[in-house]
Amino acid sequence: MLKKILKFGGTSVGTIERIQHVAKIIKKEYDFGNKVIAIVSAMSGKTNELIKMSKSIDEEFDKRELDVLLSSGEQVTAALLAGALKRLNVKAKSWLNWQVPILTEGKHFNSRIVNARTNEIDNFLNEGIAIIPGFQGISKNGDITTIGRGGSDATAVALAKIFKTDSCEIYTDVDGVYSSDPNKIPVAKKIEKISYDEMLELSSLGAKVMQPSAVQTSMIYKIPLEVRSTFTDRKGTRIFDHENLDYSKSVTGVAYSKDDAKLTIIGVEDKPGVAANLFEPLNDAQINVDMVIQNISSDEKTTDITFTIKRVDLLKTKKILEKNQNIKYKKITHNDKVSKVSIVGAGMVSTPGVTYKMFKGLAESKINILAISTSEIKLSVIINEENTLKAVKKLHTIFDLD
Length: 402
Ligand code: ASP
Ligand code: MG
Hints:
Layout: E1 3-8, H1 16-31, E2 35-40, H2 46-57, H3 63-87, E3 92-94, E4 102-107, E5 110-116, H4 119-124, E6 129-133, E7 136-138, E8 144-146, H5 152-162, E9 167-172, E10 193-195, H6 196-204, H7 212-221, E11 225-229, E12 237-240, E13 253-257, E14 260-269, H8 274-284, E15 292-294, E16 302-310, H9 314-323, E17 331-335, E18 338-344, H10 354-364, E19 371-375, E20 378-384, H11 388-398
Parallel strand pairs: 1-2, 1-9, 2-6, 3-6, 9-11, 10-12
Antiparallel strand pairs: 4-5, 7-8, 11-12, 13-18, 14-16, 14-17, 15-16, 18-20, 19-20
Helix pairs in contact: 1-3, 2-3, 5-7, 6-7, 10-11
The site of aspartic acid has 11 residues, from loops.
């Protein structure tokens, strides 16, 4: 008998029929003799709809009230699922965030789970299924909080740790993690097993299967995960520690995202302190700078600095740069029609020549590289957005992933 967390994402519970289908999946686990805690997302589209409603009252809607509003989405699903299980003659009960309670720390809309009371639910698991809304908790003051978009994954992982469950299964609309986006790259293959670090890189770099911070938590606490489909019986992808994996390939997956923008400051003075002066106000404004390239200066007086940021931060960043009295430069250019294409693989560490192979592949496809960044297990390039799929396909092929 196992104690399990089963988490169901928004599309998995997107309609009444789907909620009834999810109830059957849970019942099956229960009939096997397993103890199940189900974590649910809001029905797909619900959270966006609620955000839109709040904005129609006030673009800067009060954050405390926003959390009260948004947490309702998951609560609806929890109650409907409990009802659907009862309809199947299975004992089930939903708990709201404050009834568990799930304690959080941090700001409204961006809190994180720090603890939860377990004894009452643990007792209940001897007789039935517990259902808990994802994405939320309560603060020390008793205010309702939410934990960031896509946060039901984080709830699942945090509660897997707090309730000491044997496993944490993420049920979603894809049947696992693929070597690239299966909707765009039909030759992409499902990955049977993947390490936490690779999964973390892939999800941070654009693969939308799981929320990156949830992957990170599971890595820290070594919580074994499985990503699988609500709509098929097929085996999913297992995510765990890399000691248990064998790397026959240098690259595990190719990810891409289209949410970056590139800025170049042309003709900045080339002397100590300039980069610090440049990035200090961006840091103060919590703008995350990703890649940075400084050119060699040709006249030893001025240079060009290129860096990338999230596309949503572009206007804000430009304003901050233009207001910055501490730097002198000729002009600022920007490009927001760029994408980031990345290869990820723990096997890269032990395989020489991966960098060269990537650059050569892109050259063969006549794709210009605008910026590069590397870590031990990933290599990312910024390219023109129109070349995204061409680049992903090429890399998928040359690294033997087709
Ligand atoms: N409903 C929340 C969102 O859409 C949380 C989640 O689905 O995981 O962001
Ligand atoms: Mg979701």
